[in-house]
Amino acid sequence: MAIETSATLCLTGGRDLASINETQQLLQQAIEDSDDVALDCSDLQFIDASVLQLLLAAAHAKTKQETTLSLANLSDELIACLGQSGADHLIG
C-alpha cells in the first residue's frame, strides 16, 4: 500500500533567469519527495519565460507519473500570463 504525499512550495518575489537554478532545485526536491505538489504564488510578483518553461516541464513530468503540479493564489497578471501561454491548466 502506497501512501500519497503532498507538498506546498511557496514562490516569493520575482522568479526569472537570475533565480532559475534555485527555483529548479526547490521544485525538483518537492517533485521527488511528494506525489502532488502545489505552488503557492500569493507572494510571487512575476515570472519570466525561463520559469514558465520550467513549470511546464515539471507539470509534464508529474503528469507522466500520474501525479499533479498545480499553482494556487495567483495574481490576475499571472493568470493572464498563463492563459496567454496556454499553461492555464496549471491553475489549481
UniProtKB/TrEMBL annotation:
Pfam families: STAS_2. Residues 1-92 form the STAS domain. PROSITE patterns: STAS (PS50801). Signal peptide: none annotated. InterPro entries: MlaB-like_STAS (IPR058548), STAS_dom (IPR002645), STAS_dom_sf (IPR036513). This is STAS domain protein. It comes from Stieleria bergensis.
